[in-house]
Amino acid sequence: MGLIVQKFGGTSVADAERVMNVARIVTDTYKQGNKVIVVVSAQGDTTDDLIEKAKEINPSASKRELDMLMTAGEQISISLLAMAIQKLGYPVISLLGWQAGFVTSSVYGSARIRRIETDRLQSELDQNKIIVVAGFQGLNKYDDMTTLGRGGSDTSAVAIAAALHADRCQIFTDVEGVYTADPRKVENAVKLNEITYDEMLELATLGAQVLNNRSVEMAKKYNVKLEVLSSLVRKPGTIVKEKVKMEKMLISGVAKDTHVARISLLGLPDEPGVAFQAFSRLASKNINVDIILQSIGRDGTKDISFTVAEDCSAEAEEIMNEFVASVGGKGVALDNDVAKVSIVGAGMETHAGVAAKMFEALYGAHINIRMISTSEIKISVLINEEDADKAVSAIHAMFIG
Ligand code: ADP
Ligand code: ASP
Ligand code: MG
């Protein structure tokens, strides 16, 4: 008995049969005496399709109108799921993000949840209704609908669980939990019974799309007990929590991110303030920089390379062209055909030779490393995009077998 938040992703509600399947999972939980709030994503590829539709009409449409369009996807799935639950004979109500009290920042397309005004949720729960909430959306201070960024429904679910102190937040998806690598790409990926918030946050940030990274960040902050499990097979999934019982594995996972780009600034003057100027120009446009590499100064010049998310690479290139010209540098080179492959594991803090082992795996697969970055619990390498899947398999085989 308790309050349980259950989130179902796009594949889990893709068609009528899947919607009925979700309705049965939800009502089974309710029947056991729990209060249930359900968060759903848009069906199947709906969000992608809506974005395509917008592009056909106006490729540079405003982000406000894009959000107005994208929020429609989740409106379809909440109503359909509520109808399915009605059919099974249970009290239910569907709510859009704003009706459920989601107040967000004003940035369209990547809004942040500021707070949830829980009165409506609370009153529907008090009437013993199952509540079905549209994920991925909220309302900003202009009373406009916003979206939270791709994959944002996970964050909607965790936010409700945090705001209402739910006993558990279950993220139902199309795989059985969190694996040591994407189980659709790596045949012998292993399902993890549990993983720490910190490792999961790194994996999610480094490209394991099974959980949105902001949802993990929020779960850690508010200590939400998170479980990732399958909507198609009824068995225990992966628990994400502060501490795990056994840290027997050196590496908890391998992740890849192909949506990265590398920018090189060539022939910059080798003097103080150059890096500061370059990166502050990017920061002022909210462009996040990831791996940074600077060459040794020679003959009064140096090169700086860094990576950014692929979708802001063109803007970053333009800003850097202006900057390099202003300091009399040689030029800017942009490469979109790169990928970042990373290993994550709390065990590497106390074990030597982890990086060497990863590089050995890449050498064995004849893959050239173009950049490297490390932190306490992760090592990332930048490689050519065409090598990404091969790299993940080779590294996975080296550490996990
Ligand atoms: P949903 O629509 O339910 O939100 P997503 O497509 O966002 O589902 O996330 C689930 C997908 O994440 C899986 O189908 C799987 O291919 C992918 N994935 C990537 N890395 C991992 C991993 N380490 N463990 C599990 N799934 C992963
Ligand atoms: N429907 C949104 C997307 O496709 C949100 C989500 O699935 O979490 O990104
Ligand atoms: Mg998702």
Describe this structure in words.
Helix 1 crosses helix 3, helix 2 packs antiparallel against helix 3 and helix 10 crosses helix 11. Helix content is 34%, strand content 27%. The model has no long low-confidence stretch (mean pLDDT 96). The chain has two domains: 171 residues, 3-Layer(aba) Sandwich (Carbamate kinase), CATH 3.40.1160; 146 residues, VC0802-like (2-Layer Sandwich). Strand 11 and strand 12 form a beta hairpin. It is of the alpha/beta class and 401 residues long. The strands form four sheets. It has an eight-stranded mixed β-sheet, sandwiched between helices. 44% of the residues are buried. The protein binds adenosine-5'-diphosphate, aspartic acid (ASP) and magnesium ion. The site of adenosine-5'-diphosphate has 19 residues, from loops.
Keywords:
2 domains; globular; 6-stranded antiparallel beta sheet; Carbamate kinase; binds aspartic acid; VC0802-like; 18 strands; 401 residues; 8-stranded mixed beta sheet; alpha/beta
Produce a short descriptive summary:
The protein is an alpha/beta fold.
* CATH level-two architecture of the largest domain: 3-Layer(aba) Sandwich
Largest sheet: 8 strands, mixed
Task: Assign the CATH class of the largest domain.
Answer: Alpha Beta
**What is the overall shape?**
globular
Report how far the terminal alpha carbons are from each other.
41 Å
What count of domains describes the coordinates? 2
Residue-averaged pLDDT: 96
Instruction: Evaluate the radius of gyration.
Output: 23 Å
Seen as an oligomer or otherwise, the chain set is single chain
Strand/helix succession? EHEHHEEEHEEEHEEHHEEEHEEHEHEEH
Spans of at least 5 consecutive residues whose pLDDT stays below 50 are none
CATH homologous superfamily title of the largest domain: Acetylglutamate kinase-like
Strand order within the widest beta sheet: 3-6-2-1-9-11-12-10
Structural class: alpha/beta
